[in-house]
Amino acid sequence: MLEHSDCLQEHADKCTVIPLSVDLETFGGNTPSVDLPIDERPTLLFVGRLTYYKGVDRLIDAVVDIDANVLLVGDGNQRESLERRVRDLGISDRVQFLGRVDDRTLHACYDAADVFVLPSVAESEAFGIVQLEAMAYGTPVINTDLPTGVPWVSRDGKTGVTVPPDDSEALADAIAVLLDDPKRRATYGEAARRRVEAEFSRERMLERTEELYDRLLNKGEWL
């Protein structure tokens, strides 16, 4: 955001980036057993509001020819139209709308997912903390190359794959590549967990915040 926001450019020297975080004692730990509507096929997961900038319609289009379970967690004003799109495409047997779920079910979804997909299409998606939650479970991420923090959270070719926004064909290709390559998924997933531990843990966020206060209050950098 600091690199791409016109509003911040003249104030860049006053900005310090402290990323959002996840509690690694909660995410990526022991997962309760929950029955999910999936079978032996690989599982794709989306978590978020079903609204315009999330690009879930692009994800639905992308999985038409993908033999996988698709779990959509969340609710929103586009749910009805998205459900109709799934029915019209004839893929209701493998695309499941779970709506709002409790914490037990959410963690079970992250644990079951082979690939997490954040197909956002607009700059309203500034960060995508759900990426961190998935990465904490060692799950590779497919995200989009928005001029925001989204592709910075999960890095292309390191913790997952980044594709152009609003491009269902590119999204489908990325999904197919990862589902066809378990070794790559494992490599990306392991790197994703390490990245969360190093950069996005709750402890790291608090350390950075404390360091900033120390510089400003004790060393007079605000003068």
From TrEMBL:
<dbReference type="Pfam" id="PF00534">
    <property type="entry name" value="Glycos_transf_1"/>
</dbReference>
<keyword id="KW-0328">Glycosyltransferase</keyword>
<dbReference type="GO" id="GO:0016757">
    <property type="term" value="F:glycosyltransferase activity"/>
</dbReference>
<dbReference type="InterPro" id="IPR001296">
    <property type="entry name" value="Glyco_trans_1"/>
</dbReference>
<feature type="domain" description="Glycosyl transferase family 1">
    <location>
        <begin position="39"/>
        <end position="195"/>
    </location>
</feature>
<keyword id="KW-0808">Transferase</keyword>
<protein>
    <submittedName>
        <fullName>Group 1 glycosyl transferase</fullName>
    </submittedName>
</protein>
